[in-house]
Amino acid sequence: MIIEMLKCHGSGNDFILIDEMGQGLPFSDQERAEMALALCARDSEAGADGILFVQKSQHADAKMRVFNADGSEASMCGNGLRCVARYACEKLGRSQLVIETMKADLEVERAEDVFEGIPTYKVEISPVSFQLKDLPMQLEQDVLLNEKIPDYDTDLEFTAVAVPNPHLIAMVDQKVLQSDLQEELSIGFNKPNDLFPDGVNVSFVRLLEKNHIFVRTFERGVGFTNACGTAMSASSLVTCLYAGNEPEKEISVYNNGGKVKCAVHQSEGETKIDLIGNATYEYQAVIHLENDDFQKFSLKDKTEFTAEAENYLQLQDSVVQYLNTFNEL
To answer: Catalytic amino acids?
Structure first.
């Protein structure tokens, strides 16, 4: 079997993109999971945080499905959606589309470059819910809003929100951000437990200055990543609620992979978040499978997108220079 692929990333959160629209590949969900486990392994020739499958939609312009590196399917992926937005827009010759995801049809569009020479897309992050049943998180209360988690030995105050991926977010200082606490809590929350039966993404957020934040995220099914799009969106929302940032204004969100911008919109009791950032191509290649075994693959005809990589390095350098003023690494 031969499969065409595109390696891409949003804020350093890297993916393998496979176009099921164009190749007519009738993969089963079991095959998609097996493919993610094999291709995304970091000691493999490809290596990624997940696989983006672009499919035909019955009612939208295209459909996105996301399989994490551990073979599980994610309901949403903001960084991945930007990559799918670019791919689908360029494939269909349009600048605005509606992409079907597991929980919602989301608007995407080409946006002004977040940094010179970097293709940038704005994608809608919704629906948003603070109801614990929507994560799910099992507590004897309906919401968790900037408060301690009962029966957990930590003084941190968390907000739980589904966007629609489940997120647990704490505002912290630099000392806590650089400690091992996030990893310890995240591993505990994502192993079999009564509190989070399906696991949860855990983010530590530091307010740098007004409308500028740093976010570090432990993603369920993956672990620590350079960035998580839905986490950066949810974190921006939490900072509007509890850290003095304002809805309707762009918030610069920095991460280990670079930066994005977010804007929180609230109207008639509903919340939507714009996630604006890069959709960078790394290389395209052809996956050759030996005896149709996903564990036995090789990449052929690899073509690098060198200029895009160089432009993104310049963005990362500018981020490092900015963060250094706040004693960030």
So the answer is: 77, 228
